[in-house]
TrEMBL record:
Organism: Geomonas terrae
Protein known as: Phosphoribosylglycinamide formyltransferase
A biological process from GO: 'de novo' IMP biosynthetic process
Lineage: Bacteria, Pseudomonadati, Thermodesulfobacteriota, Desulfuromonadia, Geobacterales
Domain of life according to the entry: Bacteria
Transferase found in the keyword field: yes
Residues that bind (6R)-10-formyltetrahydrofolate: R64, M89, R90, I91, I92, N106
InterPro entries the record matches: Formyl_transf_N (IPR002376), Formyl_transf_N_sf (IPR036477), GART (IPR004607)
Length: 200
């Protein structure tokens, strides 16, 4: 499976995916990493792993569709079969989704459908939630609304700050994202409407 990873920042999820490919857990490899931010540390991680690392600046394009067309062109150039959004802080459009139907995944730091959108961990704390977590899902045209593949829960502990809760959630992110990609790479995910099941 040829995987393309889109990032905007640190790329710790990217790292967990690179590691899972390197040790043979995922039947596939990351063929390119694209960031909309020039200074994303994830680009360094990609280079270190010997993987093409591209900066595609969204500000150089007239709008979201035009930007996504450029993304699609790059992803196709590398023969990408699965697009993995890993801290990619851009809203994607139908242009990307049509090019990769049910082949775009995202990770969100909340137990969807609770707390979609930005600052999900902050939202959970402010709401007074006692359980938080993360969700890997296929991307559809909504914001954090696509079919759920895997979720993991963590406790909210008294005295938690956004940082301490985020760190607890990230540990789980680094476990479930490679796992979801592994299942996909083995053809084990079946999508029926909203519901994703795992073939034994
Ligand atoms: C993660 O918390 C992820 O859930 C969210 O963005 C963050 C990315 O972190 N979508 P990293 O760049 O993978 O370290």
């Amino acid at each position: 499976l040829k995987i393309g990873v889109l990032i905007s920042g640190s790329g710790s999820n990217l790292q967990s995916i690179l590691d899972a490919c390197a040790c043979g857990k995922i039947a596939g490899r990351v063929v390119c990493v694209i960031s909309n931010k020039a200074d994303a540390f994830g680009l360094e991680r990609a280079k270190k792993a010997g993987i093409p690392a591209l900066h595609l600046d969204h500000r150089a394009y007239s709008g979201r569709e035009a930007y996504d067309e450029a993304l699609v062109a790059s992803l196709r150039e590398f023969g990408v079969e699965l697009v993995v959004l890993a801290g990619f802080m851009r809203i994607i459009t139908q242009v990307l989704l049509d090019a990769f139907p049910m082949r775009v995944m995202n990770i969100h730091p909340a137990l969807l459908p609770a707390f979609p959108g930005l600052h999900a961990q902050r939202q959970a704390l402010d709401y007074g939630a006692k359980v938080a977590g993360c969700t890997v899902h296929f991307v559809d045209c909504g914001c954090d609304t696509g079919p759920i593949i895997i979720q993991a829960a963590v406790s909210v502990i008294e005295g938690d700050t956004e940082d301490t809760l985020s760190a607890r959630i990230q540990k789980e992110e680094h476990r479930i994202y490679p796992e979801a990609i592994r299942l996909f790479s083995e053809g084990a995910l079946k999508v029926d409407g909203r519901v994703v099941t795992v073939r034994a």
